[in-house]
Amino acid sequence: MTRFTAAELEAARDRLVPDVVADGLRVLFCGINPGLMTAATGHHFARPGNRFWPVLHLSGFTPRQLKPSEQAELLSYGLGITNVVARATARADELSAEEYREGGRLLVAKVSALRPKWLAVVGVTAYRAAFGDRKAQVGPQERAIGETRVWVLPNPSGLNAHWTAATMAEEYARLRVTAGPPG
């Protein structure tokens, strides 16, 4: 993994990171917003402490643990990645309530166009803020976007101490089983 200086990471602030998407995905994973490491590398969930890639493998979504630089391989499994808010920040708490709401509106338009089977928002707090659903819990939601069902997953950030990689993998696996096999 490339080491970045503090100045290089700060220079990545507000950068946009391209989505990894295609029409008709099985699951479109949706992060909160890119962190500075993600923006610096151009690879989603790139921060070393982030557990997204290990949990994706532990849950059975991928046959091996992918590196962030291998994110395009997700498409071969019917998986993709986007974010609620596109701009990169050092921390999610730098985002405003309006950015979350606007991100939710843009996400609905994106999901309507791409028509994944499931939208999986990784982070209950982000889901609540983006969709104005203060009572949402981890798991499948009543909300649908057209034919796309919505599932809220635990945030894989290393800062989320309420969930271990193993307990996260169990929740991700529930979605995997529900979403069915690739293809």
From TrEMBL:
Keywords: DNA damage, DNA repair, Glycosidase, Hydrolase. Pfam families: UDG. Residues 18-173 form the Uracil-DNA glycosylase-like domain. One of its GO terms (molecular function) is hydrolase activity, acting on glycosyl bonds. Its EC number is 3.2.2.28. SMART domains: UDG, UreE_C. It is an enzyme of class 3 (hydrolase). SUPFAM superfamilies: Uracil-DNA glycosylase-like. The keyword Transmembrane helix does not apply. CDD domains: UDG-F2_TDG_MUG (cd10028). PANTHER family: G/T AND G/U MISMATCH-SPECIFIC DNA GLYCOSYLASE, G_T MISMATCH-SPECIFIC THYMINE DNA GLYCOSYLASE. NCBIfam families: PRK10201.1 (NF007570). This is G/U mismatch-specific DNA glycosylase. It comes from Streptomyces fuscus.
